[in-house]
Design brief:
- This protein is about 40% helix and about 15% strand.
- It has 5 helices and 5 strands; from the N terminus they run ββααβααββα.
- The strands form 2 sheets. The protein has a 3-stranded antiparallel beta sheet.
- It is globular.
Length: about 140
């Protein structure tokens, strides 16, 4: 995956190729760094959905792009496709354990995004309506 980046040394624009980098971030970008993958993970965070449901939920995605992204997310172990009809073959999609881990990062990114613009609202707790906060936690020290 290549995308434009601004390199700090010399202030010149260049290309960053995540497929040849070995950092953890580059591995993540290789899996979900396109325009639609994180939106699909967000749509699936509340549970399984069928193709047409995803098409309606993820605003602006074309059917061919949705199909391609779902196949890639399935190949990468982020989404699981399960048939609900054999003829014609129809699938429902849900997050795998790895996809649910990624959903946590998507929530953090959404929280960051909600603070960047007045047009979006913070993610809120379903029970009491308070804006949620993400915090780092050490399971060993409980700090």
């Amino acid at each position: 995956m290549q995308f434009d980046a601004w390199f700090s040394g010399g202030g010149r624009a260049g290309k960053y190729d995540a497929s040849v980098s070995t950092t953890p971030l580059s591995a993540a970008l290789e899996a979900v760094g396109d325009r639609w993958s994180l939106a699909l993970v967000e749509a699936l965070m509340d549970g399984e959905m069928r193709f047409n449901d995803l098409l309606e939920t993820v605003e602006g995605i074309a059917p061919n792009i949705l199909s391609t992204r779902l196949k890639k997310l399935e190949k990468d172990g982020i989404v699981r496709a399960t048939p609900y009809s054999e003829k014609p073959l129809r699938l429902r999609y849900e997050l795998t354990a790895a996809g649910k881990e990624l959903a946590g990062a998507v929530r953090l990114l959404a929280q960051w995004g909600s603070g960047r613009t007045s047009e979006t609202e913070a993610i809120r707790h379903d029970t009491c309506g308070t804006a949620l906060e993400a915090r780092w936690y050490c399971p060993t020290c409980a700090e």
